[in-house]
Amino acid sequence: MTALILEFLDFRHVLFEVLVAITPLLLFFIFFQLAYLKLPRHYVINLVKGIVLAVVGLSLFLQGVKVGFLPVGSEMGEIMTGLGSLWILIPVGFALGLVATIAEPAVRILCYNVEKASAGSLRQMFMLVTLSLGVGIFVALGMGKIIFGFSIYYILIPGYLLALIMMRFCEQSFISIAFDAGGVATGPMTVTFVMAIALGLAEAMEGRSAVQDGFGLIALVALAPILSVMTVGVVLNIKRRR
Questions:
Q1: CA dist., res. 166 & res. 183, Å (int)
Q2: Cβ within 8 Å of residue 175, ≥6 positions away
Q3: CB-based contacts of 134, cutoff 8 Å, min separation 6
Q4: Which of 86, 22, 25 is nearest to 56 (CA)?
Q5: How big is the CA angle at 31 (ends 25 and 34), to the nearest 5 degrees?
Q6: Which 3-state string (H, E, C) describes the chain?
Q7: pLDDT in tens, 111-166
Q8: What is the pLDDT of residues 77-113, one digit of tens each?
């Protein structure tokens, strides 16, 4: 236990990586602040506070992922292969995708902004449930892909063809929200936990390759919100016409 705590607290390498990543953005702001923006002093002070909090928070999060999420996810994937019936992994995948999306901070920010921009016509909770259910269904499909060993093409190609068809019957606003949601849903919570479990599952299953069968699940997660949001758009468009 003590060794685990010490390993978690020793995140100097992660902190250095975060500083390297955020420094160009900070220099970019300083240049525009001195040359063009000339924002008041209290704005700059608030920005500095936000940057410090972001660096500390992101460093702790990435260290937590490295020490906790990835090893636990891989271990869970290996343990799941020892279950009596592998088909049970499909509902487990649905539940995993559901809760991971609900816990995703970026998804909540998107849902909040959708409600705000739509003047409350699209509620935050409704959007959150829609995205979570979509991701849950596609994570379940991804688990089925690993279990039965069929190609990811059988999901991605029909999925994106369906998305292109639905664009014809969906309003522009829902199309924009849908494709933004596809990127937002593949955030740090979903990627780290879902990917770790998928890789651990594929690696532990006989006849499966971690590279060929374990990867690809995040592509399905990115597709899920696109279809779920545009489905809502198509349904609302049909009701409006009636």
A1: 18
A2: 167, 230, 233
A3: 224, 225, 227, 228, 229
A4: 22
A5: 135
A6: CHHHHHHHHCCHHHHHHHHHHHHHHHHHHHHHHHHHHCCCHHHHHHHHHHHHHHHHHHHHHHHHHHHHHHHHHHHHHHHHCCCCCHHHHHHHHHHHHHHHHHCCHHHHHHHHHHHHHCCCCCCHHHHHHHHHHHHHHHHHHHHHHHHHCCCCHHHHHHHHHHHHHHHCCCCHHHHHHHHHHHHHCCCHHHHHHHHHHHHHHHHHCCCCCHHHHHCCHHHHHHHHHHHHHHHHHHHHHHHHHC
A7: 999 999 988 889 999 999 999 999 999 999 999 998 888 889 999 999 999 999 99
A8: 777 767 667 788 889 889 989 998 998 889 999 999 9
Q: Is the sign of the CA dihedral 139, 145, 146, 151 positive or negative?
A: negative
Question: What is the maximal distance between C-alpha atoms in the chain?
Answer: 66
CA 42 to chain centre: 34
Q: Find all residues with CB under 8 Å of 194, minimum gap 6, and list them.
A: 73, 96, 97, 100, 139, 217, 218, 221
Distance between CA 140 and CA 124 in Å, rounded? 24
Q: CA 11, CA 94: separation in Å to the nearest integer?
A: 33
Choose among 86, 77, 61, 107: nearest CA to 221: 107
Long-range Cβ contact pairs of 124-129 (< 8 A, separation 24 or more): 127/229, 128/101, 128/102
